[in-house]
Amino acid sequence: MIVLSGGSGKRLWPLSNDVRSKQFIQIFRKEDGSYESMAQRVCRQIRQADADASITIATSRTQVSAIHNQLGEKNVDISVEPCRRDTFPAIALAAAFLVDVKGISRREAVVVCPVDPYVEDDYFRTLKEMKALAEEGDANLVLMGIDPTYPSEKYGYILPESAGRTAAVSVFREKPDAGTAAEYIRRGALWNGGVFAFRLGYVLEKAHALIDFSDYHDLYAKYEDLPSISFDHAVAEKESKLQVVHFSGSWKDLGTWNTLTEAMEETSIGDAVMNETCRNVHVINELNVPLLAMGLHDVVISASPEGILVSDKEQSSYIQPFVDRLDQRVMFAEKSWGSFRVMDVEEESLTIKVTLKAGHRMNYHSHRNRDEVWVVTAGTGRTIVDGMEQQVRPGDVITMQAGCRHTIIAESELKLVEVQLGREISVHDKQKYELEYE
Amino acid sequence: MIVLSGGSGKRLWPLSNDVRSKQFIQIFRKEDGSYESMAQRVCRQIRQADADASITIATSRTQVSAIHNQLGEKNVDISVEPCRRDTFPAIALAAAFLVDVKGISRREAVVVCPVDPYVEDDYFRTLKEMKALAEEGDANLVLMGIDPTYPSEKYGYILPESAGRTAAVSVFREKPDAGTAAEYIRRGALWNGGVFAFRLGYVLEKAHALIDFSDYHDLYAKYEDLPSISFDHAVAEKESKLQVVHFSGSWKDLGTWNTLTEAMEETSIGDAVMNETCRNVHVINELNVPLLAMGLHDVVISASPEGILVSDKEQSSYIQPFVDRLDQRVMFAEKSWGSFRVMDVEEESLTIKVTLKAGHRMNYHSHRNRDEVWVVTAGTGRTIVDGMEQQVRPGDVITMQAGCRHTIIAESELKLVEVQLGREISVHDKQKYELEYE
Known about the structure:
2 copies of one chain form a homodimer. Chain A is α+β, with helices and mostly antiparallel strands. In chain A, the strands form 8 sheets. Chain A has a 6-stranded antiparallel β-sheet. The first copy, chain A, has a 5-stranded mixed β-barrel with strand order 8-11-9-10-12. Chain A has a 4-stranded mixed β-sheet with strand order 14-16-18-19. Chains A and B meet through strand 17, strand 18, strand 19, helix 10 and strand 21 of A and strand 17, strand 18, strand 19, helix 10 and strand 21 of B. Strand 17 of chain A pairs parallel with strand 19 of chain B.
């Protein structure tokens, strides 16, 4: 199973931003009362449908930390795209990764699905059927068809040759104009659900036909030079041997606050109080202060260390241009080793809180233009400062002059306050080093 | 002029709370683009009407820091009430303060007014007239009469003996029932504006009649035993020689978000963006992250380190019981020496940011149950730790074990990050000491 984990949308600001994509927002309540993200939910559902499913996530470097953080380092493989190049190069790279790195046979069938559909278990049973069809080999490519609701110009249209759950495809057409779309719908067409099943060898052949490369490593090296082209245009639209499996279950695209809040089980997450005159109000409060909502109708409120959104639900679809204009520092980020939060910004100082997971560490690094002070507030671990190792516990203070190499290794979960001091504080001022004894 | 600065209302939460009363919220735009609070506005207006006016603010101990901070330490006198005992004890104590501490003659007339009416300059001209009438002495007590708008049961009613701007009073009646109020209005009564003018000696006589005390210091010592009684009930309602001055200018009670935002000159203060579909929306954002409002009507949004309010404007009048239920730590406070803000709360640590004004210092103090670390982030000054003095500048780190006596003195404006560490962190864990060389 290849899961496509896409870009850094801002339509769910302030919870999504340049470093946290919407699929990592933990907003869906699980049975045990905790919350999971879209990425966690989809991977859990894949495993529930097939306990032995092996999952490869195709994504960019910026998401690797979040994936390790939320899904664990050993539960999924990651095919890292060196840069963004639409779905065809991403799928080709993931296929080459599976064959050349993971040693999977080219005859093996895989299913490619997006990370962000909000669906139920029947969806994943359909994926298994698609994979089985791809293995049978009557078609080169198996698509998922979804019942269309209106003649949208944003979807691909699949015209089956016959009625029934599974059928050969007579026409596949990406994003036609509204008139053509209406005509397709009249003739019984389905929307393309963005899910594909095929044998790995099939996609590698297509890739070799379009791109000159030898193996995974060569493709990876050439990735930046590849054109941006969708799998639909590059492969699906040109293929004559297509099959479709009709999926008529629940399927939601939770890309806006309006649709996302519809999928929330409660009206609020975090510290929030609503009075009895609120109607159809959803609050997601990631700040550690209370939020009080009174007398509101059809409103979504979302507060995070990045900012605060208060929006009429319908209006929330139009958020993107406003967020683009907010020129802001990343105030919170989850990393594979833990997380950080900016607590205070002054002209010549920056104070952040760092949480390191047990067993994790920072890179061994130095800064040219700033001094730093650590105050350990919780947990135990070891610091290495210019090669000198030291045990640390709450209350310990470590001061580091500019140029001094440093890291901290968490034994238990470790929290610290880091004060950065200097005239030119920048995230780019960081030199990394190998630790010699490693 | 005695200005009564009342209690710690929560109706303007999250900007007002137990330590910041609504009269100290800086929300009114001045000509130079900066903002002033109700307390600053009223004192500025008093001085504009009478450059020589001497102002005494009658208030509780908890407000002394905020008053010094906003009005300066030398511009106003403060009559500190040891505890809250309604307006009659407060006015009597302030009168005794003026006579016994400030040495003002008992024959001198003063005006008492509340700190929070939102009024224009004509109001203060009326106060001067009232003072002049009190000095003439035709009446013992001069009241301000305001045009009533409906038979409210919350106001006092003043029935003048004759028409005209100034008149003797035939009846003064506190808070009658609605029927009686309507009858008074029919007969030409005015609302009591809560402003009184009298000779100091008059109020001291009334005080001696009700309370057994010798002078200011004795009254101060006995203050806690005094009954809570309003000046209207204790004095005005019983007085037969009353005059009224009719004030017909603009007069607003900005006690709720609804009325307060009406007096704002702009629709937002702080980092806020509203899209074009917002109508009658006001935003006050004291946080250092952006706030985006979309598609809202008749809504007030207020965000501070204490919390976030999003409310329909009319509904905002009903905020009190909800705020009472929020059991929360004070996250931000202005003090006479500067301010502090809580940045992070953990089970066994608390991180705050402290800003000291130039020339100011903390008390010399120690804590039984916590260690502390200071990291200076801006400015210069001196620390004294267990009697040892040391110059400090940005980047300096001071560690203090529990029990260790410490203070910091700001030479220029000084900022520091304070990390508190311990199992029982409490604001009550503080022992103060005199500095020996002082």
